[in-house]
C-alpha cells in the first residue's frame, strides 16, 4: 500500500552549474512563489491556445496563493520545490487518488499533475532533477505507476516525458476556462 510519508529533501547538481539545486517539500510560506511561478509559466506556455478571458479564468481558479495554500494542506496532494540560493526555480505537484478510464489496467497509480520550471531555467537540468526526484519518491512510497496529462500540442513537454519513459495510453479533455483541449494521458511504470 502506498504511503503518505513526508518526502526527504535532497540535493542534486544542476547540469549547467556547480551550484546546487535544493529539492524539498514546500511550506505554506512558499504558496505565493508557487502561485506566481505557476501563473507565469502557464501563461507563457499556453497563452496562444485560448482566449484571454479563458486564460484569465483558468489562472484565477488555479494559481492564487490561497488555492496553493489549500493544496499544500491536503494530504492527497504534495509538492516538491526546486530552489537555488532561496529562489524558486520550479515545482512538481503530485496527486493521490486520481485516474482516467484508459488507466484501468494499471494499479498503484499516482498522478504527476504539474511540473513547471521558470522559462529562464529551461535546459538547465532543473526539470530533470525534479522529475527524477518525483519518480524516486513515488517508488519509495510504494507506487507502481506514475501518470500525467499533457497538452497534445506541447511538443517540448511530450519529448521530455518520452525521455523519462512515459508512454501515451489514451486522451482526456482538459478545460482552460471554457476552451476544451485534448491532453495525452501518459503512464510510466516504476521498476
Automatic annotation (TrEMBL):
It holds the Pfam family Acetyltransf_1. The keyword rRNA-binding does not apply. Keywords: Acyltransferase, Transferase. GO terms for molecular function: acyltransferase activity, transferring groups other than amino-acyl groups. InterPro entries: Acyl_CoA_acyltransferase, Bact_Acetyltransf, GNAT_dom. It comes from the Eukaryota. Residues 19-191 form the N-acetyltransferase domain. PANTHER family: AMINOALKYLPHOSPHONATE N-ACETYLTRANSFERASE-RELATED, AMINOALKYLPHOSPHONATE N-ACETYLTRANSFERASE-RELATED-RELATED. This is N-acetyltransferase domain-containing protein. The lineage of its organism: Eukaryota, Amoebozoa, Evosea, Variosea, Cavosteliida.
Amino acid at each position: 500500500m502506498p504511503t503518505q510519508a513526508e518526502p526527504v529533501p535532497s540535493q542534486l547538481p544542476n547540469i549547467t552549474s556547480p551550484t546546487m539545486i535544493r529539492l524539498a517539500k514546500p511550506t505554506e510560506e512558499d504558496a505565493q512563489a508557487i502561485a506566481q511561478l505557476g501563473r507565469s509559466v502557464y501563461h507563457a506556455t499556453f497563452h496562444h491556445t485560448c482566449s484571454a478571458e479563458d486564460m484569465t479564468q483558468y489562472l484565477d481558479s488555479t494559481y492564487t496563493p490561497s488555492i496553493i495554500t489549500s493544496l499544500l494542506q491536503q494530504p492527497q496532494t504534495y509538492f516538491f520545490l526546486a530552489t537555488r540560493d532561496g529562489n524558486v526555480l520550479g515545482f512538481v505537484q503530485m496527486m493521490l487518488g486520481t485516474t482516467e478510464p484508459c488507466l484501468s489496467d494499471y494499479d498503484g497509480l499516482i498522478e504527476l499533475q504539474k511540473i513547471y520550471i521558470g522559462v529562464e531555467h529551461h535546459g538547465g537540468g532543473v526539470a530533470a532533477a525534479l522529475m527524477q526526484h518525483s519518480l524516486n519518491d513515488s517508488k519509495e512510497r510504494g507506487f507502481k505507476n506514475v501518470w500525467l496529462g499533457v497538452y497534445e500540442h506541447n511538443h517540448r513537454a511530450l519529448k521530455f516525458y518520452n525521455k523519462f519513459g512515459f508512454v501515451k495510453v489514451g486522451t482526456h479533455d482538459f478545460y482552460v476556462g471554457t476552451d476544451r483541449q485534448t491532453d495525452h494521458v501518459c503512464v510510466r511504470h516504476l521498476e
